[in-house]
Amino acid sequence: MNRQSRPQKIASYDPSKIEKKWQKKWASSKVYKSQERKVQGANGSKYYVLDMFPYPSGEGLHVGHPKGYIATDIVSRMHRMQGKNVLHPMGFDAFGLPAENYAIKMKMDPAVAMKKNVARFKKQLEIIGLDYDWSREVNTTDPAYYKWTQWAFLQMYKKGLAYESNEPVNWCPKDKTVLANEDVENGLCERCGTPVEKKPMRQWVLKITDYADRLLADLDATDGSSKPLLDWPESIKEAQRNWIGRSEGAEIDFKIKDSDKVIKVFTTRPDTLFGVTYLVLAPEHPWVKELLPRVSNKAEVEVYISKTQHETEIERTDAKRDKTGVELKGVKAVNPANGEEVPVWIADYVLADYGTGAVMAVPAHDERDWEFAKKFGLPIRHVVVPERKATTTDIAFHDGESVIKRNVIRAVVKHWSEDKYLVLNWNEHGWKTFISGGIEDGESFVEAAVREIREETGYKNISFIGEIGGPIRALFYAPHKDQNRIDIQQGLLFKLKDGEQIEVSEDEHKKHTAEWLPFSKASEIFNATLVDQVLLARIDNHQMGAYTDSGVLIHSGEFDDKASSIAMKDITAFAGGRWVTRYKLRDWVFSRQRYWGEPIPLVHCEKCGVVPVPEKELPVKLPKVNSYEPTGTGESPLAAISKWVNVKCPKCGGKGRRETNTMPQWAGSCWYYLRYEDPKNKKALVDPKKEKYWSPVDLYVGGAEHATRHLIYARFWHKFLKDIGVVSTIEPFTKLQSVGLIMGEDGRKMSKRFGNVVNPDDIVARFGADTLRVYEMFMGPFDQSIAWSTDSIVGARRFIERVWKLVYKAVSEYGSEGTRAGREGGRAQALDQQGQTAGSREAISDTASRTINKAIKKVTDDIDGLRFNTAISALMIAANELEKLEAVDRASFETYLKLLAPFAPHVAEELWAALGNKKSIHISPWPQYDPTLAVEEERRIIIQINGKVRGSFMAKNGATDAELGSAAKQAPEARKWLDGKDIKKMIVVPGRLVNFVIG
RNA sequence: GCCGGGAUGGCGGAAUUGGUAGACGCACACGACUCAAAAUCGUGCGGAGCAAUCCAUGGGAGUUCGAUUCUCCCUCCCGGCACCA
Questions:
Q1: Within 10 Å of residue A481's Cβ, how many Cβ atoms?
Q2: Strand B proximal to A848 Cβ, under 7 A
Q3: CA–C1' distance A230–B68 (Å)?
């Protein structure tokens, strides 16, 4: 090829020259504007791609932030080129603690600090070349925006979903505000890490629990077909399910003896009701105060209550901590199932705000109750036991024979010095079993066991270690007595002090001999009923405490012998209880005692009580104050501005006082995605027509850390807005994709604290925005956390430069030396002007178009599936293949640029223009995949011998199995293995492989 | 503890109705160009072995002609929930 004909006019790649130029041009020509005229278009043609809008902190962006924005940018660009009306907006979420704390630190007005930060963020986003429609920008701190946040709150208030409460709530002493449950992580304030205290405070609360069932159920809803309504990562759905924490169970009333009061308990295990041995109330339970006068140890109880009140959440909820509690002496509760009187305790392991604040304690079947009972010496009664049935025919239950029920002990005896167990070897049957026997009148379990051990083995110095969990029910046939037996077998663990023995009776000796079996040989123990195996497993796994699984009921009156799981509802009914559903989700504490948030639009009137601000007076603007510092008094700094606070009551005109609490950080983000659809509307939150056109969001991309806050809150608001007719869909976000973090080069989280922050501006300056974009998308699977590597980024840059050079092949090799392609935008010459033979031209363009065609499919599918790393890989492969060709026809190269355009919009646009195109590549039509081009004439067929790859050969497409088989047999690699061998079987996978199975 | 997701070369990662493991990129080595270096281009690059070949997708079993892919058990890592009755 004639290299001299390379056009001189295309300069070498210099991102700093082209990127700003195109960014300006795109903005001025409004390439990305989601035009209103299209709002009238067919509904199917819209595509709404949304990023979780940033919170403009003072630190600016690091390279991890734009990762999600680049992804949505790529997706939205492809959809735009595919002819859809794309909505890809951006805005800022700027109310709340972090911004306020930053402003206080910098001694600035939060509003001023926010403006500065927003400007900086926007600039940082701009240089990356993102295709946002900035005409739709929203900002949650803009009064024109928060007017509608306040409006939505008022609608909730009117529907009874916002209520005032004085319950104890999470209080952060450092940030001096109450926190929602969601803002507390392991008992610490999510923002500052300070241990959270429980404090009764006046606060506004949103009744999100009213929506708990819908929030949960719609996670698994389908869209009418079998497709899930929410195409969300399973991990996020699961996090929400956990957070909502639905559980079904029974509410059961325990009467207090000599009182008309009733203690309601909530339990998920009403089947264990007959095993209740005491009740426990939360120290805050309202009855505690009322019962106090009749409690004989009043002082002790009061000390305990005040102690628990002074604990932080982290102390209170530490499960590893020893159980504490105190009995309300003199108070008895009556078990409605059996009329038994049981003591009543208070203990801080029972939470006041879950269930009913009281539990029925069944130590035999609940680990916490077990621990508590052991510590305070309370009785333990087993009522649910696992069942084992003999299965071998000789000892399986015989139909028709009589059935005997017995209480039996099984003694597991450890050797005094070795890791061995004492078993009986039954002469007649050859069984090895643990020692067992019935209980005689007046004997305890341990006494019975000690007697049996002595009688059967002669060992006499025995010490008791403990019960091996609860009893086990065993069903089997005893051949020597001709009877079916139902044994309730209690396992007991012993250890011998020494080997001293007494004489064993002749009788016993005939039956069996004692033997020591090492633990490793435990499988030799006769296991027809499996009871001994269960005992060993319990010892091995240290499961000697509560039995928490289901099983068969005992000591349960008329419910004996029934399956516990089936008896649950019957026992509930029998005890006069109710079947109920409970959630872990708590109502959303919605007020903050801080300045920087939306004012809550309510007025407190001496006469009328709480009065909502009339809608026409919205927004209630946040006034300027002299001091932003939180007061810590339970009032926000707004309380100090008497001009603002003191208003006329909207209802009676009398003296009123504005609510001074503000909304939490998460308020504005609950509905911002709706405002983008109609950002300037002064009359409504969103115009119903526009809402109907754009909603729901088709793709939502953001951090997984929002799983149990923003994403639950937003779903809650959305469902409420649906209920009042503001929105048309039951869920806001159809598809959700979480972004994997970009870690620092040291593998730690990117943070100023670790000094490992990489600034995107620096990367753009050094390598260009296109390189940054390609690199971030190429790093690995999009949702995975991967460490940044400035070393590896050169790969992305090299790739772009190789594409840049490919343009020479496209414009010159077929063109004359007069080609003016280049920065002047001269149009490339048509293919056939140069002296090439038609045949080779065709061959080359055929190869090129096949290469491109493959890439079209892969790139399109991968962008749709958000597999950007493999899409880029496909682009690299295509570039490598094009490079090998002597020339590339223009059409193929232009198609290639289109595929590249979403990833590297500046380079693609520059080269596109260099080829003479006048309109932006970003509004050119997306290429179509041609399946006929994918059909190849020949394919490589793999030869396998016994499943191992031994060679390959080329075969015509469409060759029959027989043809492939004989061709494979002829191949030298196959001959080597097949000669002199018997071919037992031949497997042909058409178009793939031939496998010979030989002896 | 319960639930969800993972584990593949020196590194990031490819590979799905079970069919050539390691695509693509980084790093590295050698070669070309250069006075030299950088850049660029070319070649190689899982391990062992001169080779034939063998071993290899966290570990162990199983199903199969054939397993990174399916089943069971185990280990470790990440994430969510957690004294929620």
A1: 11
A2: no
A3: 30
The reply to whether A747 has its C-beta less than 7 Å from any atom of strand B is: no
Q: Which string of DSSP letters, residue by residue, matches A376-396?
A: HT------EE-EEE--STTTS
A222-232 mean pLDDT: 82
Nearest nt to A243, CA vs C1'? Answer: B81
| B21 closest protein residue (CA to C1') | A949
Tokens of A559: 């419910």
Q: Residue A192: what are its φ and ψ, rounded to 5°? A: -120, -5
CA neighbours within 13 Å on the CB side: how many for A169? 28
Q: Judge contact between A359 and A251, C-beta under 8 A.
A: no
Read off the pLDDT band of A820 (50, 70, 90). Answer: very low
- Partners of A945 in beta bridges: A948, A996
Considering only residues 177-196 of protein chain A, which place a Cβ less than 7 A from any atom of strand B? Answer: 185
- The ipTM (two decimal places) reads 0.95
Across chain A, how many H-helices and E-strands are there? 29, 42
Question: Between the CA of A361 and the C1' of B84, what is the distance in angstroms?
Answer: 15
End-to-end CA distance of chain A: 55
What residues pair up with A197 in beta bridges, in sequence order? A171
**Is strand B in 7 Å reach of the CB of A257?**
no
Considering all nucleic acid strands, name the nucleotide whose C1' atom is nearest to the C-alpha of residue A973: B52
Cβ-contact A211, A722 below 8 angstroms: no
Q: Let me know: does A262 contact A559? Beta carbons within 8 Å.
A: no
Cis peptide before A614 (omega within 30 of 0): no
Beta pairing, strands A138-139 & A162-165: unpaired
How do residues A883-931 score in pLDDT, each as one tens digit?
Answer: 888 888 888 999 999 999 999 999 999 999 998 899 999 999 999 998 8
- For strand B, is any atom closer than 7 Å to the CB of A992? yes
Residues 934-963 of A with CB under 7 A from strand B: 940, 942, 944, 946-950, 952
A:703-722 Cβ neighbours of strand B under 7 Å: 704-705, 707-708
Nearest to A181 by CA among A163, A164, A203: A203
In contact, A943 and A952? CB cutoff 8 Å: yes
Give the three-state DSSP class for A645. Answer: helix
Strand B bases with any atom < 7 A from protein Cβ: 3-5, 11-15, 19-21, 23-27, 39-42, 53-54, 65-67, 78-85
For the stretch A301-313, pLDDT in tens is 999 999 888 888 7
Across the range A355-364, mean pLDDT stands at 95
Do residues A539 and A468 lie in contact, with contact meaning Cβ atoms separated by under 8 Å?
Answer: yes
Q: What residues contact residue A227 under an 8 Å CB cut-off, 6+ apart?
A: none
